[in-house]
Amino acid sequence: MNTYRIYEEFRSSLGEPAAKSLAQTLGTMFEELRDTVTKEDFRSLRTSLDGDIARLDKALCNLAEAQARTEGKVSELAVGQQQLAEAQARTEGKVSELAVGQQQLAEAQARTEARVSELAEAQARTEGKVSELAQAQARTEGAVSELAEAQKNMTLALQRLTIRTDTVVGRTFELQFRDRLTAYLGRFLRRGKLLSNDQLLEAIEPHVTEQEMEDFLRADAVASGFVDGRPTHVVVEVSSTGDVEDIVRAERRAATLRKAGLEAIALVACDAISPESMAIARMSNVRVWCNGCLVESAA
Fold first, then answer.
1. What is the DSSP letter of 289?
2. Which of 79, 98, 133 finishes a domain?
């Protein structure tokens, strides 16, 4: 039996120690068999041994294939382990990034909470200021209300004072005009003479109504004389400012005399008169004496 050939055949698949041991074992077995069995037995044994060797070769081939597959699996496993290690490294990197992010988030949350606290304090201060402003506004509104009431009272007082002043001025002007009527109207009313209103009662009473007579007696002044050479009465309304009511009253009271058959001219004596009132005086044929002179265009 060639043990070296056996050793060479199995060295590559089993490795040098195992192949060497197998070759030695088979050589020893062959020597023992050769010494103990007959040639026929040896032939049978050899046939059996060859079958066993064939089966062993097949088993060794299968074992080699299995080892190759195992080595492939081991290689794949090594690759998988490498990939797993790389994935784990990436995971650890992500975990590290996540930890950093969580730290940043915690810091940002802390800053946000601090800012919220500051805003809450600012809002509280603002609400306090708003409350103070509301109170100040309430006080201001109260003061404004008091001022408005005082202004209203002052306005009413000024109105009453103005009315009294106008009354006094008007009355003073009326008395002054009555006293100097013939002088003021000297060029217009020749040989003028101031009359008391009741001097004409007997002349007008039979011809006018009670209301008309009472109204005539309230005329500010009545004078008699000559206007353009004709005997005429002048019925005067005196006012600081000649207005439409003065014009209407003067014409109405002069008309009362004309109704009784007397010649009469209406006249308004004033310190000032508006263009509108002057236009109405012209249309009503009412004379206007204004600010010291007779306005001829009003005739």
1. E
2. 79
Q: Average of pLDDT values for 110-118?
A: 84
Give the per-residue pLDDT at 171: 64
What is the sign, positive or negative, of the torsion defined by CA atoms of 4, 6, 8, 14?
negative
> Which of 22, 57, 79 is a domain's end point?
79
Q: List the one residue out of 233, 275, 274 whose CA is nearest residue 255.
A: 233
- Which spans in the chain are helix H? 3-14, 16-36, 39-179, 181-184, 201-204, 210-217, 244-259, 275-283
Is 149:188 a contact under the CB 8 Å cutoff? no
Q: Which residues contact 33 (CB under 8 A, 6 or more apart)?
A: 42, 45
| Mean pLDDT rounded to a whole number for the chain | 82
Q: Does 150 fall in a domain?
A: no
Domain that holds residue 269: 180-298
Structure-token pair, residue 108: 């940002």
Report pLDDT for 163: 46
pTM of the model: 0.45
CA–CA separation, 129 and 135 (whole Å): 10
In the chain, how many domains are there?
Answer: 2
